Amino acid sequence: MSAPVFAAATAAPFNPLLVMILVPLIGAAVVALMPKARADLVRQVAVIFSLISGASSLYLLSEFVTKQGDFQFELRHAWMKSFGISWHFGVDGISLFLLVLTGVLFPLAIVAVDPGHDHKPYYAWLLVLMAGSMGVFVALDLVVFFLFFEIVLVPMYFLIGLWGHGDRIYAATKFFLYTMFGSALMLVGIVATAYLHQRGTGGDWTFDVVEIASKPGISTGASRWIFASFALAFAVKVPLFPLHTWLPDAHTEAPTAGSVILAGVMLKLGTYGFVRFGLYLFPEASRFFAPVLLTLGVIGIIWGAICATMQKDLKRLVAYSSVAHLGFIVLGTFSLTKEGIEGAVLQMVNHGITTPALFLLVGMIYERRHTRNIDELGGLQVSAPILAGFFTLAMLASVGLPGLNGFPGEFLALAGAFKGARWWAIVAASGVILAALYLLWAYQRVFHGAAEGDNATMRDLRLVEGLVLAPLCALIIVLGVYPKVMLDRIEPSVTALVEHMQHAEGGGR
Amino acid sequence: MSALVWLIPALPLAGFVALVVGGRRLGDPWAGWLATAAVGGSFLVVLGVFADLVGRGAEARSIHQELFTWIPAGSFQASMGLLADPLSITMCLFVTGVGSLIHLYAIGYMHGDEKFSKFFTYLNLFIFSMLMLVLGDNLLLTFLGWEGVGACSYFLISFWHTDPANASAGKKAFVTNRVGDWGFMVATFLVWTSVGSIGYLDIANAAHHGEIAAVTATAIAVLFFVAATGKSAQLPLFVWLPDAMAGPTPVSALIHAATMVTSGVYLLVRLNPILHAAGWANDLIAWVGVATALVAATVAVTQNDIKKVLAYSTVSQLGYLFLAVGTGNYVAAIFHMVTHAFFKALLFLGSGSVILGMAHEQDMRRYGNLRKYMPITAGTFIIGWLAIAGVPPFSGFWSKDEILAGAYAHNKVMLALGLITALLTAFYMSRQVFMTFFGPERWREADAVATGDGDHADAHDSAHDSAHDDHAHHLTPDHTPSESPWVMTLPLVVLGALAIVGGALNLPFTDSTKVLEHWLEPVVGVHELGVEGATLVALAAIAVVLGLVGIGLAGAVYLARRIPASTVERPEFGWGLWIDRGYAAFMGGPGRALFDAISRFDKAVIDGAVDGVANAVGAAGAVLRRTQTGRVRNSAIGLATGAVAVLVYFVVRMSF
Fold it and tell me: What is the ipTM score, two decimals?
């Protein structure tokens, strides 16, 4: 489990970060150049490229030095020297598992779902999306981060708009414009950060996150404004109440692979952004705005759960459950305690396992029954017991049953919040009641009861589908029983972050 | 043996895994035998560990085994560690002991069910969870077991899920329990922030050194009691347990009578060092306990479903346990918990045997004279009846008497309520026995039970009347009941024997006969009852007399038929049901309306505002409108081009 302490990370024969980003990009180009008629071949090529990238993320995991809080596998290559913009990549315990998650989810999503038409652009966009997602989590330069943060919008827009269901164009456009609107302000914030930092320190221009964080030079007032501009962009992405209404539309209308990636990876761009670019760059402003964000997080937990309860579309229900779950992550993050932030990071990853599993299962039901309307489903446990079994496991993980992966992160987030912001935690903890309510009620209506009509003849899982779900379900159990494997790697970086925050606030400006 | 503590939960877990993998192939009955062997093996290990502990000095009777670290984050450390001490091993003994018997019984009871192996898969998982609950060395591990048993309870209540009523009952149990779990979680946070650890040994240590402030201790106790009202079915959260009878009868015996529902009592006894400092929280626990005991006993009088009588009886007996906990009488709580596990498991299994013998009819009004057809079932059921009614020398007499003595020392009103409950208990249990095993064979009368007449509580409750154990069986007038097979009667005989002699665990005569009290002393400390000699005898005499009055009264009504049943089965007695109906009405009415309103607000106002803004902003609005015309590709490509252009613009702008 533990990597040798003396082997420096950079001693690895190659840097997996670049491979993780570049291979899917190359794959996208290859796919684009292939003959249109060979859908199966296109698919195989896409699988291979995503697997190479995914394998690199696992290699990264194996080479990652455990008891170290600093960035590892750092790469720095100047881009625009006069502005201090560089391709600065690195990974620490906070981003590590999000990268691995990205590396695992994409191959699964590619294998699991056939788009049905236009295979070539579909796989090309998915691979671009994979590269962009990897890039977001490794970028340590504000401009590079922004670049990737925006790039991922484009493929997701097309995935929803071209391969989605129902009112897909509306959903795609809403998703695109909403997030663009948020990040436009962030761009202003980024420029302001570099500008004011240069003014404050009197040094060179830099967009380097580590340098900006280590040499504070921005006044309290300005940093609060800048934080707010970042926070707005991230809040849309998370999404935080009341900026969440793009999510149910986008998740529901997206093709299954899109929903998987949206829930698994893209929502985490916001929560990850809060930790990396909120807490790390603007410690004082984070504390200043914490009550606001905690409150919105708690409202999101309750609100999302209540809305989920009332949904008639099974996929929309799962989508709303994300609003609630992400609320816990925000709660943990802005508890500003070590336990809370660790729980938040843990939950980012675990939500990225459980909810994609649920989306895959809903997709499998839809593929068979051509409906996601809960009222039209029923008794499926009789006709498809194995599918029901997988669904039960993912559902209980999502409910936060101890021993499954949904629990440790949620619990730590709440515990940290209780330590830092007691009353918020007490209210937020009631979210666990609602989570049981909406999921079990949905389960009852979809799987219990007598199966009639098409529900009675629905086919159970195929082997391939079982194999796609198996790794996620294995992770649900393993990470529930032994979350230590993650916490050991997350903790040093979170400790460093919390100490950095205390130091920055105590040290004055 | 001490190194093998981990085997206690590991064996049922192994059984569960084996059944998940190969249960279907093993099938009926071998899957059942495998599951039974797993629990039986676990019981043997418990016996070994028990013998090991007995062989040690009182202070050394604690084995702490840490397997691995479960959740380590900052100063929050939860281990996967087991704590075998007199309290947890006592729990393990009856969980695995009674558990094995019920597994064995279920081989007969579930025979022929198409999901036979699945039933035992859940049952083994349940035993594993229950053992983690009692053996866990910290609050979070107990919570793991706590939620695990809750999930298994959910699976098993809705086991026959094609019937919507069963599915609803399962969901209701889980969600109601979750309300209590909120208390568990917040209490755990509070323990962690005030003690700095969630390990039981650390908690006891801190409490003994007075490191927990009285206010904090009170809050912790109240919050854990909230958790207990869910899991152990106390006011106001008891409503799920009667519905839980929708599960197969072995489940009712194992989970909803003998083991899981006592978890709340175990938890509070485990945390007795905190309760010592918790002031009025103890009174709250005692009052809620005795009130629950009384309310549930009154409801039990009005029930006609054989299992529902036992369900309300269980709620009532659990109330006694909390009365004991609240009065600081921990030994009595554990004592009655154990004897109750014996006689209530016996009664449930007996009722299962009756239900099977009567073609799955559960209405006692269609029973009668069954002692003629099912002699073993009848004989053992009568033992269970005498035990719960508090007739000496059966086990229930001794343990209930200790609780009442503790109540007497604490508060005379509590004692009075406890005594009334004892009378009611004797009455409704006698009613059940007389209706079932004595009197005329009522199923032979065509349409003996017309709807409405004499059906008070149940008639209103039709929506929730989900306790029917199986589907599509009909009891015909020419039906001849038959005794159940040996796998079912053997557990009845063993439990019957235990229900007779269980009182020997803690006889009040001399110091040396108080075995359980001395055994538990290292965990719960010394508790002076403050009731001695003549008072104790007088109390016992009063309780016995009241019990006999209850039996006599029932005899007058249901055997001699001197008093018509309708004068006793007053609808007012069913008032406890109004709590349940109140919840249902709220959830279906204002609760649902509120949820609906929020959901509508989300769509109309919050999302509406977004759309409004988008439409108002000229360019964005134009795009939205245009895209809705359906020219998918054009507009999509247009947008993407725009986005890329914006991006390029930003990037280029920066490099100048």
Answer: 0.92
